[in-house]
Each structure stands twice: as structure tokens, then as C-alpha cells.
Specification:
Layout lengths: L2 E5 H7 L7 H6 L7 E5 L3 E5 L4 E6 L4 H9 L5
Antiparallel strand pairs: 1-2, 2-3, 3-4
Helix pairs in contact: 1-3
Length: 75
Amino acid sequence: MQFIEMTGKVLAAMLSDDEMQASDLQTAGVTDDTIVRVNQHGDIEVRRENEWDVVGGLLGNYEERVKHATGRDWA
């Protein structure tokens, strides 16, 4: 599966009102410097010490929003 990686700060800035909120990210342990990734299904995964942990998902046009926010493509 392909992903686009970013920081928690970038993720928080691109979220829509109907998706996770800043408080949800904090509860999931996501800070501005946390490494996160989004897969092509819109799942948000957080890098933990020795694994990736799914903490939520993105809705509607997330593919373009993720690419625009990060300047990256799926890898």
C-alpha cells in the first residue's frame, strides 16, 4: 500500500470540520512533530516506537488535500 507522510502539524492544518479535531489528535498522542502517514483509503496512521497505529480517517477529496498540503505524491 502507498502512503504520504507528514507531521502532525501539517495533518492538523488540513483536516476538515467533519473529520478528526485537534483534541482527537491530542488524545491519539499526535503532536506537531509526530510522524503520521495517510494511505490511499484515507486512513491516518501514527508512528509509534515500533509500529504504525491507525487513529482515524479522512473524508472527501482527501487525496488532493494531502498532496497539496505536503507537496508529495503516493509512495
